[in-house]
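Tutorial, part two.
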Amino acid sequence: MTPTNDLATPTPGATATPDQPAPSGGPAPARSSAPWIRRAAPGLALCAVATAVAYLLAQVIPLSPLVLSLLVGAVVGSLLGSLRRAGGASGAVGQGTARARWAGSLTSRTQEGTSWTAKRVLRAGVVLLGLQLSLPEVLALGWRGLAVVGITVAVTFSATLALGRALRVPRVTSLLVATGFSICGAAAISAMQGVVGGGDDERTRRENDDAVATALALVTIFGSLAIFVLPWLAGLLGLDDDRAGLWIGASVQEVAQVVTAGGAISAAALATATVSKLARVVLLAPIVAGAGVVKARRERVARPADVGVAAGAPAARRTPPVPLFVVGFLVAVLVRSTGLLPASVVEVTTTVTTLLFTAAMFAMGLGVDAAHLVRTGRRALVLGTASAAVVTGVSLVAVLLLA
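Running the prediction step on this input gives:
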């Protein structure tokens, strides 16, 4: 996923210069012969600063640093995009034009590093996420607990996709919402974006970036509500600590939200909630790999191999059925499951994973089209509401029947 976003879109009709990208649909400016690290350094530095700001804000604001980082990126991208558009629309030489030129220059200088972060750093975070999962801990839930988790994930994922089609929500948005609600919130959305994100044209890439922002907003809203609602409902229903913890772990989106909700009941509920949440995260690999297989199959149908050969054109790059970062995720899970990693190493990698995801979220946030998101967000909100109801209701029924 290498987003070409509003931050990277110059004023329509502008001429490409060394400091400003070519207009959408025009020829790309010649790439500098400078070493890659020199070209990428401004964008990498911008992502690093944004990551630090989001991580520090998360210590005082009850929001995931991933979500905060995306918000910061969306604000920065929207601001610079509006400056460029205002300068181009005015057509006058003056302060507006100077601001537009400055925005275009900043965009051009940072695009190499932010694009690399949105793709490579994101995938590194997914791989390291596997080090947080231990199969023996997950298997300790027993077949009943695992059945609750498996049923909840399968029904929520498939039902959300079906509801998305019925509501005519864009396919990528439905897929990201389904992944976020059924698996593990922002981290799962990021991993799925690594497979289905990007696109062959600027409009597609921008719509996919909007889909990420929409999905993250929805899992944040409904996961935050679950922190208060589920412990109250568990008491109202008379669930014991193990059942309450299993319900929370099988239905709440973010790990931090699970910890907060489970801890509000008891230490025993927290322990069960955390382990059942880890069991959901394990299912991230097959779901993302499955999406990769489907995308690769669609590309084969849309772009038959003999077409490019007959035309003498270079073969189109195809999506591998199972992305390498998913394989890396599985390897990391196996390494953690051996029990050979010291607890201190696991703790450090957990922090590093959060930082990597936070940086990637900022880079993707730069591509969010806020105006488009507001115009098209109502159907997605209905989809998120329905998905939250499905994951909460299905997991409760499964707990009552099986646990």
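Residues 126-310+318-402 form one domain. In part three we will examine how such features are distributed along the chain.
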